Amino acid sequence: MSGNVSAIGFFTRTRRAGRIDITDILSWLWLIGGTLAVLVPVLWAGMSSLKPEAEITRFPPTLLPRTAIQVEVQGFDKPLSLWNVTVDGETREMAMVRRIGLKAQMVDPANPGKPVSVDTRTISPVQRLTVATQNYTDPLTRFSFLTFLKNSVFVTFVATLLTLIVNALAAFALSKYRFRGDKAIFVLIISTLMIPLTVVMVPAYLVIVGVGLVDNLWGVIIPTVASPTGVFLLRQYMLTIPDELIEAARVDAASEFRIFWRIVLPLTAPALAVLAIFSVLWRWNDFLWPLIVLSSRENFTLQVGLNAFQGEFSVQWHYILAMTFLSLIPVTLVFLFLQRYITTGIAGTGMK
Fold this sequence. Notes:
Blueprint: H1 2-11, H2 22-48, H3 53-56, E1 66-68, E2 70-71, E3 80-87, E4 90-100, E5 103-107, E6 116-119, E7 124-125, E8 127-129, H4 134-141, H5 145-176, H6 182-191, H7 197-210, H8 217-221, H9 228-238, H10 243-251, H11 256-267, H12 269-285, H13 288-293, H14 302-306, H15 317-338, H16 342-348
Antiparallel strand pairs: 1-8, 2-3, 3-4, 3-7, 4-5, 5-6
GO biological process, one term: transmembrane transport
InterPro entries: MetI-like (IPR000515), MetI-like_sf (IPR035906)
Subcellular location: Cell membrane
């Protein structure tokens, strides 16, 4: 009960006790608008992923997944769709035989006779709520979605693990050791943030070709391990760790690696969690670099594999939406698990 009270108190708290200020109203509008801007596209993608293929492109669009009802009509080989038609002031359900421009030929499904010509602007389809589960089952059974998912999980997990280790080692050296040129090296690392990705893409690809990692998942992982953002984030956080703690460990004859592994890393956990979230988002959503490096379908990551549903003349939106919605689940779980470290980790980078 206290949890509910505190939550209500948080959302109803105002700048001045017992009085609503204009800043409170603007804050509420900003938070509600931001929440809707993020939530509505995800909700729309989730609901659309349950629609049949023909319903996704229907105009005007509907939020709930619905499909037209089809019935068998005597004298017709294929099932006909049902429509609400007003004939002689009476609205009834009729089956559409054919549609030509603004006119449609309709028959009574119970007593088919001569087709009646009606204006298509005055009719509406008879629909029912339908969940197109095949949008999810078909890619899992007929296509290589599980292979794409496995490759993405491998790339994301290994790249994130290596990113944390490599960047933490570099940040430890730049924050806790004093040597000639340490500031220049740090500035050089940070300055690489200003280099566009397109500038280094061709040289990086030539290096991958030279070491024989083309069409290999390691060719996707290794070039992305060293991150100037990660070095900056971890170095700034490690500067807040007292040097006296490290000196005390050295007095106790602890090796430098033991100091790094047993003292510095545990204390840097909030910043590592923030970097882990960033790395997971970067690797999981990366499309351009895997598209360049990988050529075999069995090595495709999820984002590259989803591109296979887009052909030259048609796009299988029902499969793309379903698989895209599934691909949001792992990233969302990682974020929910590590979100409590975000504020602490980012705030700690600017304390010194």
